[in-house]
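hey
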């Protein structure tokens, strides 16, 4: 039976809380952790490095800006320096496609493996627009990722159409209407999906236990 990878976000205000949350996620069966550095109070490069080293588990380092659904309030230079420092220890570093090219390229060059992400919290762009987004992401980074908001069920189908063209993409339709894409995505070739342990960090996010159960049931022989 194929085991699909599940990434669990760690979204805490302090390093101690993040470390303890990470331990719970690992014990709960997560394959990968996303450390949301932007959730930490006054994060620094050293703080991020020490936390990632202490957790000692496969990690995506993410330092999201407010326009992409995050909480980092410092300058782009500060955000970039934190991500570049994190890249020394993390398996993956997430940087937004819409980030300024100069900052984005510095992060990509520092990363062992880069995830280029795109978010739309208002709508689902057209199929052609999303295919263009994925193509650009794949040109500059290692893994393409996008999360968009459906207005109707047809929008959720658009995400599956993208995966039929680019199966090795993390593609998510957010909210209740699109939550099934978090399960179907890995079945169509997404390298991993996201699920929560405790509080959700995105609209429509399923919990880890349920996600694992459904993926296992759908892939068992």
């Amino acid at each position: 039976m194929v085991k699909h990878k599940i990434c669990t976000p760690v979204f805490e205000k302090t390093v101690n809380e993040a470390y303890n949350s990470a331990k719970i996620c690992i014990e709960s069966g997560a394959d990968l952790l996303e450390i949301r550095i932007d959730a930490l109070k006054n994060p620094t490069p050293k703080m991020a490095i020490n936390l990632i080293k202490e957790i000692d588990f496969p990690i995506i380092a993410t330092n999201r800006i407010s326009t992409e659904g995050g909480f980092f309030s410092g300058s782009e230079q500060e955000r970039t320096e934190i991500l570049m420092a994190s890249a020394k220890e993390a398996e993956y570093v997430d940087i937004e496609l819409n980030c300024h090219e100069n900052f984005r390229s510095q992060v990509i060059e520092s990363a062992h493996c880069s995830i280029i992400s795109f978010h739309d919290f208002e709508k689902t762009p057209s199929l052609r627009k999303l295919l263009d987004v994925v193509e650009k992401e794949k040109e500059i980074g290692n893994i393409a990722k996008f999360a968009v908001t459906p207005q109707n069920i047809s929008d959720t189908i658009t995400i599956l159409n993208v995966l039929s063209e680019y199966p090795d993409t993390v593609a998510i339709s957010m909210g209740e209407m699109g939550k099934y894409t978090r399960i179907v995505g890995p079945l169509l070739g997404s390298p991993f999906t996201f699920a929560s342990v405790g509080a959700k960090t995105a609209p429509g996010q399923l919990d880890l236990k349920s996600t694992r159960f459904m993926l296992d049931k759908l892939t068992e022989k």
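The CA atoms of residues 38 and 71 lie 5 Å apart. The chain has a mean pLDDT of 95.
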